[in-house]
Design brief:
Helices cover 53% and strands 25% of the residues. By secondary structure, it is of the alpha+beta class. The strands form three sheets. The chain has a four-stranded antiparallel sheet, with no helix packed on it. The protein has a four-stranded antiparallel sheet with strand order 7-4-9-10, with no helix packed on it. The protein has a two-stranded antiparallel sheet with strand order 5-6. The radius of gyration is 59 Å and the shape is rod-shaped. Keywords: Coiled coil, Membrane, Transmembrane, Transmembrane helix.
Length: 301
């Protein structure tokens, strides 16, 4: 009886031992299962963070390209910053492309990307400010150019006005006559003059004219030029010189000078024809100060 109880007790102990072993194995498996699950979750988390960081780097690089494409040539300072940011992005991409990252490396990469984001934002803002300044300068340049053009146009207008005014003043200051009376004469052997009306006896003419009062005319000596045109309209060449009047070059028959003080005054010009007069009507035109002063006619039969 004792032996049977002892044997039964040993069998019970074996059963308890097996149960304990099975429980231990089950606990170990559960522990290993949870550890594996936690490790898998950690690997997934690290992979997701790596992908997010790589995406962020791509976005930052794209923003750099867009910022550079909005402007022309960068300043030296911005160009140096651009190269620095690109080098930093390349460095982080190499780090992320490693097989695995430690927790410290991952945290460092995340902090570097965070700082990089700040610098890219500041860099983009600097370029925006540069573009705004360039636009403002371009506006000021265009405004200045417009102002210069306006001033130039105004100066040209004033110059033209001054030229026009000068021409008007010059024309107004020129001597003028109201009428020109012409007489024809024959010179006797004793030197006396007799008025005649026949072409075959006429030798000289006397041109009588009155200069109108002109307070703005230059006081002093004025050159008077006379052109005598025959009945056919041809100029009778006397001294043979030329002069400018009414913006054209002309030849004159006779030239003299008179004194003028601004008040009306009568004058007489004597001119002797070296050749014989012809029958018909002659025209006499007087010029002074670059303009026509007056004209008259006389006829011989």
């Amino acid at each position: 009886m004792d032996n049977q109880e002892q044997k039964k007790k040993k069998d019970t102990n074996k059963i308890y031992f097996l149960i304990a072993v099975i429980v231990a194995l089950l606990g170990t498996n559960v522990y290993l299962f949870f550890q594996k699950t936690k490790s898998d979750q950690r690997i997934v988390t690290v992979s997701d963070e790596k992908t997010a960081l790589q995406t962020e780097l791509e976005k930052l690089e794209t923003e750099l390209e867009q910022a550079n494409n909005t402007t022309g040539e960068l300043s030296g300072e911005l160009k140096a910053k651009d190269e620095e940011l690109r080098a930093k992005i390349a460095q982080l991409r190499v780090a992320l492309n490693k097989g695995q990252l430690t927790a410290g490396e991952l945290a460092k990469a995340k902090e570097d990307v965070k700082q990089l984001r700040y610098f890219v934002g500041k860099y983009t803002n600097d370029i925006d400010d540069l573009l705004k300044k360039n636009a403002a300068l371009a506006g000021e340049r265009d405004s200045l150019k417009s102002t210069v053009n306006n001033v130039t146009e105004l100066a040209n207008n004033l110059s033209r006005s001054n030229d026009s005014l000068y021409v008007k003043v010059k024309a107004a200051a020129a001597l003028k006559t109201t009428r020109v009376d012409i007489g024809t004469f024959r010179i006797k052997s004793n030197g006396k003059e007799t008025d005649v009306t026949r072409a075959n006896t006429a030798q000289k003419i006397k041109v009588n004219f009155t200069i109108n009062p002109n307070p703005i005319a230059e006081k002093g000596s004025h050159t008077i030029l006379m052109r005598v045109l025959d009945p056919a309209g041809n100029l009778i060449i006397g001294e043979g010189g030329s002069f400018m009047a009414n913006d054209q070059e002309l030849q004159y028959t006779y030239k003299t000078s008179v004194e003028f003080n601004g008040e009306a005054k009568n004058f007489t010009l004597d001119w002797t024809n070296r050749n014989a007069f012809e029958i018909g009507t002659y025209t006499v035109v007087l010029y002074a100060d670059g303009y026509t002063m007056g004209r008259g006619t006389f006829s011989l039969r």
